[in-house]
């Protein structure tokens, strides 16, 4: 059984990063999820199931790229805080804007 | 010179972190607000297509899916470029940087093809509120990808001049952060704009 330590290399910056094999594994997972997303276009799924399903896959891909490729998983939590602050602020501000424009009722 | 490199890696800064990297993360946080505004505007206007083509009639999902896959894979090549430089493997760093720039260019080529097809089918920038919001959002994203390609090419030039070394890997890391951000923004755009069922005429 492999351990997490086998998947990481260290470099001069001090913190450890995954190996090339691990990056390829992450990309394969992302490609698979993208294929699932695209697959929903070719099958008939009711909107009330399809939209939450697509949102879950989108959020999964987003956080996977941010955590592994952008190294938020390994870097200082301060970087995550700055990024998440912008993300949360954008979500709240534009959530309110969409509500004001009655987007949720009109679809 | 050595002091500058130390500060850029976070040694000797108030936070113990690289100021350049911190600045890039603050910038990316602010970019969330820019793209959030553009995506929200699109969502508000996507049903207002008037007499012009509707989004559900004009989007080519299989074509855009291939473009999305290309951009996603460019994130892999970018992170492999960084990993190679951090190991001191200059040759592979160049190969992966070039691969990333080529994949980015392929994505931009696909976007240019998509835009010209839409214009031929009667969807211009001022055709409807939907078309304006769509072209503004995807156009802004395309400009970001294009700027990323320019930065990647400048890294390649630095590498061939011998100035991009293992000690300066943070430069690649920071440009890589920008590139991955452009990729995650497309993850949002692809799902919300293309895959979520759109209105038809």
Q: Would you give an account of this structure?
A:
The complex is a heterodimer of chains A (107) and B (201). Chain A contains 4 helices and 2 strands; from the N terminus they run ββαααα. Chain A is mainly alpha-helical and 107 residues long. Chain A has 2 domains: 1-72; 76-107. Chain A has a two-stranded antiparallel sheet with strand order 1-2. In chain A, a hairpin with a 5-residue loop joins strand 1 and strand 2 (16-18). In chain A, helix 1 (20-42) packs antiparallel against helix 2 (47-69). The longest helix of chain A has 24 residues, at 77-100. Chain A is flat, with a radius of gyration of 18 Å. Helices cover 77% and strands 0% of the residues of chain B. The model of chain B has no long low-confidence stretch (mean pLDDT 93). Chain B starts with a helix and ends in a 6-residue tail after the last helix. Chain B has 7 helices and no strands. Chain B has helices at 2-8, 19-45, 55-58, 61-86, 90-120, 129-161, 169-195. In chain B, helix 2 packs antiparallel against helix 6 (129-161), helix 2 (19-45) packs parallel to helix 7 (169-195) and helix 6 packs antiparallel against helix 7 (169-195). At the A-B interface, helix 1, helix 2 and helix 3 of A face helix 2, helix 4 and helix 7 of B.
Q: Give the count of helical stretches of chain A.
A: 4
Any idea what the CATH architecture of chain B is? Up-down Bundle
- C-alpha termini separation of chain B: 63 Å
Q: Please give the order of strands in the largest beta sheet of chain A.
A: 1-2
The best one-word shape of chain B is elongated
Low-confidence stretches of chain A: 1-6
**Count of the domains of chain B:** 1
CATH superfamily of chain B: Cytochrome c oxidase, subunit III, four-helix bundle
Whole-number mean pLDDT of chain B: 93
For this structure, the CATH topology of chain B is Four Helix Bundle (Hemerythrin (Met), subunit A)
> What is the H-and-E element order of chain A?
EEHHHH
């Amino acid at each position: 059984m492999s351990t997490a330590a086998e998947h990481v290399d260290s470099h001069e910056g001090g913190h450890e990063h995954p190996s090339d094999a691990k990056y390829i594994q992450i990309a394969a997972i992302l490609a698979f999820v993208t294929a699932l997303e695209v697959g929903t276009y070719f099958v008939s799924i009711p909107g009330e199931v399809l939209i939450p399903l697509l949102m879950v896959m989108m959020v999964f891909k987003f956080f996977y790229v941010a955590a592994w490729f952008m190294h938020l998983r390994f870097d200082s939590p301060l970087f995550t805080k700055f990024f998440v602050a912008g993300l949360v602020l954008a979500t709240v501000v534009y959530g309110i804007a969409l509500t004001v424009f009655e987007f949720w009722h009109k679809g | 010179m050595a002091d500058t490199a130390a500060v850029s890696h976070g040694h000797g800064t108030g936070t113990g972190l690289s100021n350049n990297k911190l600045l890039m993360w603050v910038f990316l946080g602010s970019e969330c607000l820019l793209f959030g505004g553009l995506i929200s505007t699109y969502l508000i206007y996507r049903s207002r297509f008037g007499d012009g083509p509707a989004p559900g009639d004009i989007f080519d999902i299989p074509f855009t899916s291939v473009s999305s896959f290309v951009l996603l894979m460019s994130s892999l090549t970018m992170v492999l470029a960084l990993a190679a430089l951090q190991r001191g493997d200059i040759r592979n760093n160049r190969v992966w940087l070039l691969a990333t720039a080529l994949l980015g260019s392929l994505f931009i080529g696909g976007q240019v093809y998509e835009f010209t097809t839409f214009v031929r089918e009667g969807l211009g920038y001022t055709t409807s509120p939907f078309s304006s919001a769509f072209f503004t959002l995807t156009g802004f994203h395309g400009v970001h990808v294009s700027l990323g390609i320019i930065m990647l090419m400048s890294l390649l030039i630095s590498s061939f001049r011998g100035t991009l070394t293992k000690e300066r890997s943070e430069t690649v890391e920071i440009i890589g952060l920008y590139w991955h951000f452009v990729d995650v923004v497309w993850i949002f755009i692809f799902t919300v704009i293309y895959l979520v069922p759109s209105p038809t005429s």
